[in-house]
Write a structure and sequence with these properties.
Blueprint (H helix, E strand, L loop, with lengths): L1 E3 L5 E6 L6 E5 L8 E3 L5 E2 L6 E3 L5 E2 L3 H9 L5 E5 L12 H10 L9 E5 L3 E5 L2 E6 L5 E7 L7 E7 L4 H6 L5 E3 H9 L12 E4 L2 E2 L10 H14 L6 E2 L1 E5 L3 H12 L5 E5 L2 H5 L8 H10 L1
Parallel strand pairs: 3-8, 9-17, 12-18, 14-15
Antiparallel strand pairs: 1-2, 2-8, 3-4, 5-6, 6-7, 9-19, 10-11, 11-18, 12-13, 15-16
Length: 296
């Protein structure tokens, strides 16, 4: 599957062997190692997005929407070829990635499926922001946000990520920001390619993006999408409940660091047939894509 951004960055998501995992390959790097594993311990400090890097300094930014789409479509092995340092933002959501995956089709592999089962609660905080993971039978995501801008305000949502819930409920929710944030970022050379077409931009009680919101609670839905992508960097599907309160990429990654530093808090388990059927990407396919296109 290949996609192009307005900046002519080409990205191709290619099949990979069983137990390969997800890996980015910087095709524009001709000297040195351009392979970057999509794992929680490859995350480096970055603003407003999730950035991965290898030991030689090669990096790829804004991976969270693509990672969420891979997880939501049940894709656990893929080589992602990209000829630039950043995954295309597209419309600010994961919908185009999902549509491309479902349009091409996803192939089942014969290797047994493993997942990370959460055994004990783990929590990290940064001021009023909280990220927590705790035991649950399936992947569940709870999120709440609080913003001063009336166009966003206080929102909260909880979902069990089974039966294609990511695709049905979250994948087309766009990233959002305040107009003041856009101006601030542009003043320091960031978000120069950003437009009202690839993010929901708000100012006080107004939504400046054409067409307005896709959902009244699109902002919290997108935060859940981001969390889905950041949790996918665990390397295996997670069986547990994630709770985010004002949390962002950095805090979710810190949660992953703490979780994997505590062997007693999780276990890598072999999934039985029932568990496999309840993983986020189970049962999704072209039929779901066609129903979504009819609803659009």
């Amino acid at each position: 599957m290949g996609l192009h951004s307005g900046k002519k960055v080409r990205i191709a998501v290619c099949p990979a062997p069983e137990d390969f995992g997800i890996c980015f390959k910087r095709m524009d790097i001709v000297s040195g190692d351009g392979m970057i594993r999509a794992r929680w311990d490859s995350v480096v400090t970055s603003r407003l997005c999730t950035t991965l890097a290898n030991s030689n300094g090669a990096s790829v930014a804004t991976v969270e929407h693509l990672m969420a789409a891979l997880a939501g479509c049940g894709i656990s092995n893929a080589m992602i070829e990209i000829d630039g340092p950043e995954v295309p933002i597209l419309d600010g959501s994961a919908a185009q990635f999902v549509a491309a995956f479902l349009g091409c089709g996803v192939r089942s592999q014969c290797a047994p499926m493993h997942a990370i089962r959460i055994l004990q609660p783990v929590e990290v905080r940064n001021g009023e922001a909280i990220a927590r993971i705790e035991p649950a039978g399936d992947l569940e995501i709870d999120f709440s946000i609080m913003f001063d801008d009336e166009a966003i305000g206080c929102q909260e949502k909880s979902l069990s990520m089974v039966n294609g819930a990511f695709i049905k409920e979250l994948c087309d929710s766009r990233t959002f920001c305040r107009q003041a944030d856009v101006e601030s970022m542009r003043s320091i050379g960031l978000a120069l390619g950003g437009t009202l077409e690839n993010a929901v931009v708000v100012e006080n009680d107004k939504v400046l993006s054409p067409g307005g919101l896709r959902y009244p609670d699109e902002a919290v839905r997108h935060k859940m999408l981001d969390a889905m992508g950041d949790l996918a960097l665990a390397g295996y599907p997670i069986l547990g409940r994630y709770t985010g309160i004002r949390a962002g990429h950095a805090l979710t990654n810190r949660l992953m660091q703490v979780l994997f530093s505590r062997p007693q808090a999780y276990r890598l388990v072999l999934c039985d047939a029932r568990t496999v059927e309840r993983l986020p990407g189970a049962g999704v396919g072209r039929t779901l894509l066609e129903s979504l296109m009819r609803a659009a």
